[in-house]
Amino acid sequence: MNPVALITGASRGIGRGIALELAKIGHDLVLNFASNAAAARQTAADCVAQAKEAGQKGQAEICQADVASAGDRQQLIDFTKKNFGRLDLLVNNAGVAPTVRADILEATEESFDRLISVNVKGPYFLTQLAARWMIEQRRTSVPPVSGTRKIITVSSISAYTASTNRGDYCVSKAALSMLTPLFAARLAEHGINVYEIRPGVIATDMTRPVKDKYDKLIAEGLTPIQRWGTPQDVGRAVAAIARDLLPFSTGEVINVDGGFHLRRL
Ligand code: NAP
């Protein structure tokens, strides 16, 4: 039997990269998206093909839901129950950048509210729902397919890096970073390990508008590993956790940033 993973924001970018890597190691997948159904369908088809190529059998179902909406979050869980009847791994990946990068002396409350809703409230309460169901599964003797159930949240180097032209994004990611220690401490007794993955500069639609800026910064030595990160880089870190390679670790932050976080002199 395959473990079942629910990935938010899996139609494109990092979420898609995570889905493809989990497909390769034999996971059934629920791929959430916000509005781009065509991209979600393509990712689902590519996951099934990747699984086959890797000698695995895997299913991938797509589910539209806005993680900022309580009703949609419940529907996402209900969809997973109906289609697979179990949940082994939740990946909180969906997230948004501000529509316009605005100086913190000018940025609007509307943008702040949007980012807090999608980037913080969404994953926080989806984790609550998923965790309750995981606890119930254990109580009703549905064992995890591998050693533990897991919750992984994708934050950002923006959790600790000040970008004054997108303060709302930085604040949302800093707040999101508290999710992992909180749920790790609460859920260990229920056999659920909780991790944060903290990507650096990753080539996706989100960073496309600032490609030239980051090309230059990377060439000038922004990161010790001197290249853009890829969705696959993040996907492989998620796959390492999903394969149970960190069974005695919980609450950990895993930097997938080419060494951006290192202080250098
Ligand atoms: P992206 O290319 O813009 O893709 C965003 C994904 O999230 C899409 O699948 C999108 O669905 C989905 N999404 C957006 N709002 C949603 C909502 N309200 N409910 C459900 N799904 C929603 O972004 P990305 O670069 O892959 O980023 C993924 C995550 O990594 C985000 O949390 C981001 O903050 C974080 N991150 C990114 C970078 C980077 O350099 N790219 C670095 C650090 C952290 P649709 O296709 O339907 O729009």
Residue runs with pLDDT of under 50 for 5 or more positions: none
Q: Which CATH architecture would you pick?
A: 3-Layer(aba) Sandwich
Task: Find the CATH topology.
Answer: Rossmann fold
Structural Rg: 18 Å
Write a structural description.
The chain is of the alpha/beta class and 265 residues long. It has a single domain (4-256), classed as Rossmann fold, CATH 3.40.50.720. The chain is built from 8 helices and 7 strands, in the order E-H-E-H-E-H-E-H-E-H-H-E-H-H-E. The protein has helices at 13-24, 37-53, 70-84, 109-139, 167-176, 179-187, 211-219, 231-242, and strands at 4-7, 28-33, 60-64, 89-92, 149-154, 192-199, 252-256. The chain has a 7-stranded parallel sheet, with helices on both faces. Helix 1 (13-24) runs parallel beside helix 2, helix 1 (13-24) crosses helix 8 and helix 3 packs parallel to helix 4 (109-139). It is globular, with a radius of gyration of 18 Å. It starts with a strand and ends in a 9-residue tail after the last strand. 43% of the residues are buried. NADP nicotinamide-adenine-dinucleotide phosphate binds at residues 8-15, 32-36, 39, 66-68, 93-96, 118, 154, 156, 199, 201-202, 204-207.
